Amino acid sequence: xxxxxxxxxxxxxxxxxxxxxxxxxxxxxxxxxxxxxxxxxxxxxxxxxxxxxxxxxxxxxxxxxxxxxxxxxxxxxxxxxxxxxxxxxxxxxxxxxxxxxxxxxxxxxxxxxxxxxxxxxxxxxxxxxxxxxxxxxxxxxxxxxxxxxxxxxxxxxxxxxxxxxxxxxxxxxxxxxxxxxxxxxxxxxxxxxxxxxxxxxxxxxxx
Length: 207
Fold this sequence. Notes:
Blueprint lengths: L15 H15 L12 H21 L2 H29 L3 H6 L21 E4 L6 E4 L8 E8 L9 E3 L5 E3 L7 E10 L2 E2 L6 E4 L2
Antiparallel strand pairs: 1-2, 2-5, 3-4, 3-6, 6-7, 6-8
Helix pairs in contact: 1-2, 2-3
């Protein structure tokens, strides 16, 4: 019996980071997509929900209070609901056509077998930026990765910086940093299947 392909609608088990990556991927893939001319709900509305969730997630991580965490969890629910509604729309339009489904950015039952959680990020290298107080970050690119996250801190400190997102494995500039201090940086990769392990820390004295 032939497989009936469809966009998956389960988001409740995704980690917060995975949900953000998935939502951003879907919005990017469906924007100006000729297969999906009238998304329901509108992509702008989904983007607003994603922006709200992202802001509250950042606040919860910075402050960590029960109130901030509750607000983050509450903002996640309407985003999940909007993505489910959008998945129903995509399935209705695509009618099981796999390439059309994949163009939507949604994970599907026909593609998950070939995509796995990212590997540990390797080849992390720091070098001087163009200006004092800057460091350039490069690392090895991985396949089937939607974005990378990196953090930095003064070597020997306990707390890492907030997480910064990038889609490029080359020429990421970290600034402003304090000259003559040694910093350490770590990187990890994300895709729709999950989050890879943090890389080994790379260190450098900032000029």
